[in-house]
Amino acid sequence: MIKKEKKEIEINHIFCDDCGIDITHNNRRCAICGKDVCNKCVGYYEYDGDYTTNYCKSCWIAGEKYREEIKEYENIISQIEDKIENIHDKWINECKKC
């Protein structure tokens, strides 16, 4: 026996918040402001494993001065982590002598 069943489906369309085109694939949501942007309107993206972190053009431009400051602190943190690792290695080496 064959039974027919009618189903209604709802399809959501995502539109670029900057240029207004219908984004059929590869939509990118800005990590700062949350705007949906198409590939043409994305300011910058970077891969984090399986996912990307995306920024719209206006947020990417606004963040230039902040990214420079963040980079300086990341360098400081990296140097501190290296020093901590070095001290930890000295500790381990001293204990190996025991």
- Overall structural class, as computed from helix and strand content, comes to alpha+beta
Q: Which band does the percent of strand residues land in?
A: 15-25%
N-to-C span: 82 Å
Shape: elongated
Mean pLDDT over all positions: 91
Q: Tell me the radius of gyration.
A: 24 Å
Number of domains: 2
Low-confidence stretches: none
Largest sheet: 2 strands, antiparallel
- In which range does the helix fraction lie? 40-55%
Secondary structure tally: strands = 6
Order of helices and strands: EEEEEEHH
- Strands of the biggest beta sheet: in what spatial order? 1-2
How do you describe this structure in short?
Helices cover 41% and strands 21% of the residues. With 98 residues, the chain is of the alpha+beta class. The termini are far apart.
Description:
There is one protein chain. With 98 residues, this protein is α+β, with helices and mostly antiparallel strands. It has 2 domains: 13-62, no CATH class; 65-98. It has helices spanning 57-62, 64-97, and strands at residues 14-15, 22-23, 28-29, 36-37, 42-48, 51-56. The strands form 3 sheets. A two-stranded antiparallel ribbon has the order 1-2. A hairpin with a 2-residue loop joins strand 5 (42-48) and strand 6. The longest helix has 34 residues, at 64-97. The chain starts with 13 loop residues before the first strand and ends with a helix.
